[in-house]
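FW: tagging you since you asked about this chain on Friday. Here's the raw sequence from the shared folder, copied in full. Didn't touch anything.
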Amino acid sequence: MTRRGLIVGSLAALLLAGCSNLDALRTLNDLTPGDGGATKVVDGAAFGSDPMQTLDVWVPKNAKNARVLVFWYGGSWRFGNREDYGFVAKAFAARGFVVVLPDYRKSPPHPFPGFVQDGAAAVAWTRANIAKYGGDPARIGVSGHSAGAHVAAMVALDPQWLARAGAPGAVKAFVGFAGPYDFYPFAPGGSAEKAFGRPADPAATQPITFARADAPPSLLLTGDADDVVQPRNSASLAAALRAKGATVETRVYPGVGHVGLVLALSKPFRGKAPALNDAVVFLDRTL
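HL: got it, structure written out here
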């Protein structure tokens, strides 16, 4: 069996067991043709004083006044690092976006709203600095998977965070991959309870609370086999945005689970769902 075949088999077994191996995915992604012309030009730029307040920037070839996408990875607001998600940045950069991939402070040492504050600070850094890397600071979209989609949604929908970061109105579009948007009350002992504790105002933790008529255009993607973040989260937020008169679209992918949706952004697993193409088409239209 080839090296690629061994990696495919190992990764599939891990995914079937309910876990993921991002080292194997990175290797397999690198072995799979495609996504040419994407280059990392910033590695670990600081947007704050904490070691996790850092970000990478990926650019397409000959970037000039390009659309910008800030993407946050998931991990229950507790785990993850930007180095593992270069495959996402490469995918969008190869399609003409300047991509910012931030880290953020994690719970439990940094519960809500720390990670949302970091999301807004990363957008503020992007607006102030992205022009020097060929990005257009007037065309910034935000996106994320799972807990990262929650961060992106809060930054896009609750205006206080960008205002406090000094970048009001910076976000022009939002794409959420399997995001938790309407998940209170928290499951006892679960990851949300660890990340949010017992907030004085639980509604302030929920993106659905901030549905508004002038929200950035939104695309909410989910798989109907997601048993980690229930698809009803996307349906509920979409309904709330529509009720306010905001622009929102949804996509539900048959047979796709929680991990499968972010895997669909990688080269080896794009056949699982057309999530990358759907996101690119939407962002092309709205940015």
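FW: The mean pLDDT is 93.
HL: agreed, and The beta strands are 39-46, 54-59, 66-72, 98-102, 135-145, 171-177, 218-223, 248-253.
FW: great, closing this out.
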